[in-house]
Structures are given as C-alpha cells and as structure tokens.
Design goal:
Distance between the termini: 47 Å
Number of strands: 11
Oligomer: single chain
Number of helices: 5
Largest sheet: 5 strands, antiparallel
Helix content: 10-25%
Radius of gyration: 21 Å
Order of helices and strands: EEEHEEEEHEHEHEHE
C-alpha cells in the first residue's frame, strides 16, 4: 500500500455530563481528517488494527471528574480521543523496528499515527501458544497486568487466603478471580456481581467458589454467609 499522508480521526468536541451525544450541536465526538507528518528520526508510522475501548474512557471525558480519581489524565477537548491499540508499523525511522511488525501503542482514535518508538512496545508471539493478538489488549495487556500485580504484589494473596473480588464479572475482576483460583490456588474465592446471570458465569466459567448478587435483597446476608469466619483479601474494583 502507498504511504498515507492524512488520517481520519475522532475528536473529543464536547464533554458530556450524561450519556454521550452522537449527533447535534453538542455531539461528543466529531469525525475529522487531518494531515499526517512523515516520521522523523526514531519515530514510526503506525496503522491502527485494533482499539481498546476501556471503561476509564468514560471518566476521562466527564466535565466534572476529579483528576485525582483517575490513574491517567482527563481527555483533552478538540484532540483525538486517547486510547491504546494494536498497530502495524508502515514506516520506520528507528533502529530495531521493522516495517510489518506489530506493536502496542497509544495512537488514539485514529487510522494512522506517527509516534516515538520509545513510546511503543513490540508484540512477541508466545511460543507454543495459539493466542489471538487481541489478547494483548486484555488478558495479556493492562487488564491482566492490573489483576496480576494487584493480587500477587499488592495483596500478596496465598494458598491459605480467602479472597473477595468486587466487580467479579468485569474486565479486571474476572481476571483476578481466575488468577486467585487457578494460578495462586487460594483456598476460597468469592465474587460479587450484579444479577443472577453474571453470578452464574463467575462461578461456572471463571471458577469462583461462590458469587454474591449485590442486586439481591438478601445481599448483606448472602455476603455474610459466604465470608463467614475471616477473609484475608478484598480486591475492590468499584471504588
């Protein structure tokens, strides 16, 4: 393919107080086309293949969010919406980075982007494992790393610990449940989720010993029953 000289991109044009608006004078995002610079020394021209649409993006576009509540900065108005993605290198001016290689980067909501190689991370295939590359945006990406370091390095959960996980059906919570139960081998893993279907999924598919429905009228009693005695670790995903 020819080297692109422009890119389509979604600009954050208004920060919504309620649900994002898809059209009208106060629409949240606007599709624009912008010129694309050629990569300079130690830069890469990237083509976005897969984009990670993470829950934190909702907080980042809120006009009233307290920056202290975010682990990253609020999204900037009139700039491409920020997001992490899997990209292919179309052109490289950085040693050790070859055209055609796949990388993890933060190109935002853009078809193409020019980025410093130092801000990109190469994606390496896992020997002996048939894993979709998109897993590097989930289980093998920030979601999985957050769960892994949270439960192993921060909580330091062990085999003799009972662990309670809120948001157990969510992206990070579901990873915590699996790591605690199947990798660490914690003696008991209790999830908290909203609704019977989610609780069933957490138990049957993720392997939790129990999952308590916070929407149920008996939530307090159910939680007390499942955590009778002593719980060593509470992994909170809902603040």
């Amino acid at each position: 393919m020819s080297i692109p000289t422009k890119t389509r991109q979604w600009i954050l044009s208004n920060k919504p107080s309620g649900l994002p608006s898809l059209s009208g004078p106060s629409q949240t995002f606007t599709l624009t086309t912008a010129p694309l610079d050629s990569p300079a020394s130690n830069q890469l021209l990237l083509q976005l293949l897969y984009l990670s649409n993470d829950p934190v993006q909702r907080g980042r576009i809120s006009p009233n969010i307290d920056p202290a509540r975010l682990y990253t900065t609020p999204a900037e108005l009139n700039s491409p919406m920020d997001a992490r993605g899997i990209c292919k290198i179309l052109q490289s001016r950085a040693d050790g980075w070859a055209e055609g290689e796949l990388v993890l980067a933060n190109p935002g909501w853009r078809e193409y982007a020019v980025m410093d190689a130092a801000k990109c991370q190469k994606i390496h295939s896992l020997e002996g494992m048939d894993v979709s590359v998109t897993q590097f945006l989930g289980a093998l990406g920030w979601t999985g790393l957050t769960a892994w370091f949270g439960i192993t390095e921060v909580a330091r959960a062990g085999k003799e610990d009972a662990v309670v996980v809120s948001g157990a059906a969510g992206a990070t919570g579901s990873m915590v449940v699996q790591i605690a139960k199947h990798i660490i081998g914690c003696k008991r893993v209790i999830g908290i989720a909203g609704g019977e279907e989610k609780c069933k999924w957490v138990k049957q598919h993720l392997g939790a010993d129990a999952c308590v429905d916070y929407k149920a009228s008996s939530f307090v009693e159910d939680l007390q029953k499942e955590t009778e005695g002593f719980v060593e670790v509470y992994f909170d995903n809902v603040g």
